């Protein structure tokens, strides 16, 4: 059981490193969005995706270790939370495991908040771009005449198109 806890601790440390990396990337993304750096955003998205894939693989590994621990601690349900495993193990838990788990939880919340901020910045940018497009290239409105024929309204652009 102690060996499994040590393996779990190692997996959690690796996850924490990836989460820290994702938080830094999300902070960079915020700055890139503020500065409207599209090229930087395109490069950043690839890096974020790679880090996310690594985190997903580590999460799978962590869940396998937690299931193994649940079996070693004689839990009937294999889907036990880490905090429950730590409480059940008592003294045999490696020092710092609880602290590491709590720190990761805080970083996950921080990452979620940053992602929400970035999502709002993206929506704001899209709204602005769509508004500018509607000003530059107004939509042609279709109306029906009394005879039933379709008439396209001539909505001239608000910008002078002569060169």
UniProtKB/TrEMBL annotation:
Coiled-coil ranges from the UniProt annotation: 41-68
Record's keyword annotation contains Cell cycle: no
Pfam families reported for this sequence: FlgN (PF05130)
GO BP term (any one): bacterial-type flagellum assembly
Coiled coil recorded as keyword: yes
Signal peptide per UniProt: none
Origin: domain of life: Bacteria
Keywords, ordered alphabetically: Bacterial flagellum biogenesis, Cell projection, Cilium, Coiled coil, Flagellum
Protein name: Flagellar protein FlgN
Organism: Metallumcola ferriviriculae
């Amino acid at each position: 059981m102690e060996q499994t806890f040590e393996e779990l601790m190692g997996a959690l440390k690796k996850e924490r490193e990836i989460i820290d990396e994702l938080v830094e990337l999300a902070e960079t993304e915020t700055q890139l969005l503020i500065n409207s750096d599209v090229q930087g955003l395109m490069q950043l998205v690839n890096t974020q995706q790679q880090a996310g894939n690594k985190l997903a693989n580590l999460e799978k590994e962590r869940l396998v270790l937690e299931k193994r621990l649940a079996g070693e601690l004689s839990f009937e349900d294999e889907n036990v939370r880490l905090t429950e495993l730590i409480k059940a193990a008592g003294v045999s838990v490696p020092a710092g495991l609880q602290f590491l788990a709590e720190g990761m939880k805080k970083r996950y919340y921080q990452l979620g908040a940053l992602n929400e901020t970035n999502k709002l910045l993206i929506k704001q940018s899209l709204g602005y771009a769509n508004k500018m497009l509607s000003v530059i290239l107004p939509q042609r409105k279709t109306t029906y005449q009394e005879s039933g024929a379709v008439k396209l309204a001539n909505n001239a652009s608000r910008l002078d198109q002569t060169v």
